[in-house]
Design goal:
Six copies of one chain form a homohexamer. Chain A is globular. Chain A has eleven helices and 16 strands. The first copy, chain A, starts with a strand and ends with a strand. The first copy, chain A, is 44% helix and 24% strand. The longest helix of chain A is centred in the middle third of the chain and has 24 residues.
Chain lengths: 294, 294, 294, 294, 294, 294
């Protein structure tokens, strides 16, 4: 059955397509630069909650994987955990102003991170054609941890990382999606901060990039001054900044400092509320958000 | 610092140990026979609920893995799912006497299987020194499914299995622990019967053995006659038996028939209430429970 | 040294970039479909002569290679050979209307294809970041040939292809650029038609696609009727067409028929005068030019 | 043909088996600890002569191999050699109280070690299901040697070891059984002390353990005092002991010291007259005999 | 320290060397043809006994190995065994005119083949720079056998060959030297005819060539007519010849027939009394002795 | 069809062949010594122009390759380039007595080296059974270069070598034949001195030998004194010689010094006018020409 195409229609189509081809080609140098390297992405905030942003994230990560970059996704799930605790009527307990993770709480943490959020991320990534696989710190002892502060219960600090597990997955073309719990030396499950877990994993894997998707535009020198948004700084700048900083950015920036000292080449604080923030960072010359280099 | 041991104590110790050595050696022919082969184990019932049996199961699976056999664990979680549904106040719905898996139900199924039971199994296996890894049907599209009956909602029938994912894990010395959900062709999560999933997986992997850990002693020719317990039958016996059988054993035995037709070499219905049932089956000459061969 | 970026500039930049990200993502399904497959491209005509088209071609091929597709470029060089012969004062000789390739002529053919055109293509591909490598039919006896017609002199018909040579290069991530000469059974150099060589090579490599870059819009059912441009046909359509066809398209279409019969999945006659014709064909849903399938 | 098992018989059988399963599981931590490591075993004395001990040794080594440990057996054969010499009427010659290995003697040594003892060990190991392979120092120049003392004739000191040969065998799952002769730099066969060869080989292979099966209970601080049996000492203890020691234990202990200095992790002097001495040492917490650590 | 060479001396040397270079080059087509193929050589007779022929054999085999051909040497040792039996005063026993291999006899056979002849061949091959390794049928159960005739005692017929063992050695560049004993199904050592073992091994390894070094010039159509020496025949000629033949050539020719039927490409009966018979056969156009092809 | 050979003819043939076998065996130690090592050969002069010498060269290189040595051929082509320039009427331009390589000149250089000389060498090597492959510095950026002197135009100095490209070819058993052009950092083609390119490549590949085939007998201490021909010197001798030397040998000897300092084990200046000079050097004990060692 021979099919025909009207010449003028084909011409219009070609004209339209030309721009697309040029855009694909502009990505070439970035693909070339980052092929084969590991990019650890801490995923959370609006990018995880807003369905439209979630789709854009899934597409971005899948594309990175398809062109030969090796993304590793690390996620937490604070808000969903809080909601699940409320639904189960678990009262948060506090010691010296810090929340305690008791037996009941860690149960909800595990159930929510591993049973709800993690397979959900895997499912929508695979819906874009990726081959994502859910992992948590218990799998083949990916994360071993010790208690961070005995008074806080099952809150852990990572002591060892089974990098072979993640590397094995990357070698098979899989995208690991990591839920941030760990196995304590006592055999119990521990909750570990996802921002920190991302940094520790990036360092252990000697990643090229460590990327935080956040709900701010980047790092500000002065939080009250929108014009003080930092586009680029190095490790010494970051250390000075850390001395006079507090708030939610602190665990991320400390992890960035640790990762860069430990061999990671670049760290980024991106605005996850921007669609395709990840692609924009990796595939454009200026990047977006705040970049920190050693 | 030189240490001494009293000669008579050493002698007593040696005498005691001798018997242990002999028992280890009796395992030799079985290790030789099954090294490198895949054993798919459907895990559930008392063996999963009773802490003492759980420990014995974990030890057995770890030992199999350490001596070079390749166990794959598949689990369901009916009772825990029912409990979780009740706790969340979800009313079961029925169509023609069959339970419907609606949106809320599949959410509880996923959360319980993937977030509670699966990591728990992984955790106690790794506590025995194994390198277990949790997997579910969404991971790298391990199980793709279609709806089994449109009226039943998100209940799926497996259409394809990503055997490469499991084989890759086995090649790295990992013990896959599989939660029986699947990705529907519509992208949604589906619940799949764990007994069936085990059989399908055993067939897809061309396993040497398919083992069901149950809460009965084995298969009875006549359920009411304890002396009719079958120790051994072949596929043609099984087919005759299937014609006049009903009840909970049916999905297991149908899966056994499918698996044996599809290339699996042996299937076993074991009494999971017996400690170390798995080791006894694999490492003794008579085996236990009911064995079915092609 | 901390760098800042003005928030409004960043916003504009993001807005502009968004469209680019979307276009990259639209390529995803095609990358997924064709990763790891071999695409043999017959390169010639305007796409080789026009500097702007040459750049666009080089970018296209490099991009294919970077995203994991395995392009193999085959080229001829008729016009340049004619020019070089004229420059050296070699008179073309004819037998029954067919041009004779004598000792002097084959010398010019080899010098021009292997010494001028081939390294030029390699050089501009590598200028785009590719890792192209020049090859000709003499290298490790890539093409062995017998004389096609004794009266025509050193004009050969390919009898065997050393596919291992090309596969080895593809496995190392190289882009082979193949000059269409061959080693005769008599040890002499032979000229082989580049259109035919591309088809033979596609078949020997069991390529996914065989693509001809030409100076027409595609294949016409009726050369005099622009509206008869064929967008799609299958092998049986092509065979009917071949019976009543003549002219320059004939060797291409015969090679297409041979290649499709021999296991190649798709063949394309593209308009090489269109920039990025290759990308448009592979990365858009409608494709361009004429596609032939088995 | 359906087979039945009487329920009460099965119950008795299960009860009996339970203890066996527990013993198998107690071996788990040791299997885990030593999998993949090399254990060089000097085999000789009663363990080689007494048929019952020989069987127990064969079982032990086969089990080690089956669970993934990599045993290498080195043997001598003093008594058999003496007997063979007597049978052939060869008179031993002495120089300064040391026995001379002349042309006739080395012939008997080679014939007995390589032609009688070595294949015998290989044969009974394989009778237990192992895949043992006989090797001697001439094979692929496994051992090169120089004369130890010119007056002693063909008695050699090992200068180089072809570790690749043994490692290649281990990688194929074979158990090398090594006869302690060597190729001299002059091309002649040389006799090398088997105790020394075991130590040199353990060091060259960077073995985890070097084990001597002897006809004593272990090392005594004071040979005349049975209560001075040493269960554990380190390299510095051993060195002090060596200064005031003589007799048959000397070459073993010197080899132990050399091996531990050269990177071997543990050395053991075991009582080969105890059945399953090897398994007891490796698979129980207290071990038996004398252990020396760096 | 600058060294000088007198120009005229260098010229003479070059002149002399020229012929050598040409001879090396004449070997090229044969090296090309046989590289990577397996050649099984039955070694025995004068070639094994005469020191000069032994040297020439060792050189030939080493050269084959060095240029990438894969020789496997199989040897017997009839005369040495008879001598050893006489020395030990063992009386040969006969049943129906056939010699019986009893317990004492098989002991001498093993000791002589494995302990005397085999290491001797290994040693002189390695003296030429080869990496030969001694193997016998007990090693990793290389040869399994059943009794050939119960009345004859430990005389075996090979039932299975562990080709993986030999292939593993060839892959490591080793030259296996095989002593023709086997493991009986009863665990006992059996003597197997070396001519037959060579043929069975060639077939199991799918060798390119099976070569017998004998003490005759080749096969004669008529043993009494020296002019009836056969240079070349095919399998059907051989079968006709076998019908009317007897004597020592029979087991060789039957093995040749079996091997050629089983996939071996060429078999040769060479005169081992000719120095370098092996090289002459493989590296010259006419070959020597009798060649049989399928 | 049985074939016979007359016994006396066979005897004569064997006698004749015996000498050939001995010569083959004399090559053994050299094959053993150089197997697996890389030998970079600068090819040019009479050895390239004289048809008889060319044949001898092709045989030599093919033989080296067949016995497992890894030859890499580097060639220039001064005389042919000059002839081609004259034929095209290009006037050589000079700056300060040095020839300028302008746009037209580099075109002729590329066309002649890559299009005429290189495929010619490949073709006659393959005619001897080798698997040679033509390469030039543009292929996968084998040679990157910077201008040597801005006034000289497109004359380059090599800055980086893509050794992986050549090693990949050697691993596949190919013989790389390298044309000495390079890619400038500006993307343009550059001419590089072939003597220098050979030295740079030998160093980058950590070759065992760097061999120059020249039209002189070797290096003379005093060019006017034929008796001062040097057979052997070391790097310190060479450095002293370089201080008082000029003329055509200079670039070769400087490259030799660089290569030896950079890890190459031996360098040779051979008389390419002698047939089989290469074989004589590598396969005889005295070697020919001048050898330089570190």
């Amino acid at each position: 059955m021979i099919g025909h195409s009207k010449p003028d229609i084909q011409k219009t189509r070609i004209a339209n397509s030309m721009g697309r081809a040029r855009i694909l080609l502009e990505a070439l140098p970035y693909i070339k630069q980052f092929r084969g390297t590991i990019v650890v992405i801490k995923y959370g905030g609006s990018a995880m909650e807003d369905p439209r942003l979630r789709e854009s994230f899934a597409g971005d990560v899948t594309l990175l994987s398809m062109v030969g970059i090796r993304p590793v996704v690390v996620h937490g799930g604070g808000p969903q955990i809080s909601a699940a605790m409320a639904a189960e009527g678990i009262e948060p307990r506090w010691v010296d102003g810090l929340r305690v993770t008791d037996e009941a709480t860690i149960g909800v943490v595990q159930k929510t991170l591993v049973g709800v959020i993690n397979p959900e991320i895997v499912r929508f990534l695979n819906g874009h054609g990726a081959a994502a696989i859910g992992v948590n710190g218990l799998d083949a002892d990916l994360f071993r941890a010790v208690p961070r502060d005995e008074r806080l219960g099952y809150v852990g600090e990572i002591t060892t990382v089974n990098t072979g597990l993640i590397e094995g997955m990357l070698d098979q073309g899989l995208i690991p999606v990591v839920a941030s719990i760990a196995r304590g030396e006592d055999g119990h499950v521990y909750n570990v901060n996802a921002d920190t877990a991302a940094g520790v994993l990036a360092k252990a894997l000697q990643a090229q990039k460590l990327v935080y998707l956040t709900d701010v535009e980047g790092v500000y020198e002065n939080v009250d001054d929108p014009s003080s948004l930092i586009s680029k700084m190095d490790l010494s700048d970051l250390r000075r900044l850390l001395e006079r900083m507090d708030g939610g950015m602190l665990p991320k920036l400390r992890s960035v400092a640790d990762a860069l000292e430990g061999g990671v080449s670049q760290a980024h604080i991106l605005d996850g509320r921007v669609q395709h923030a990840l692609l924009l960072e990796i595939f454009t010359s200026e990047g977006i958000g705040t970049m920190v280099t050693p």
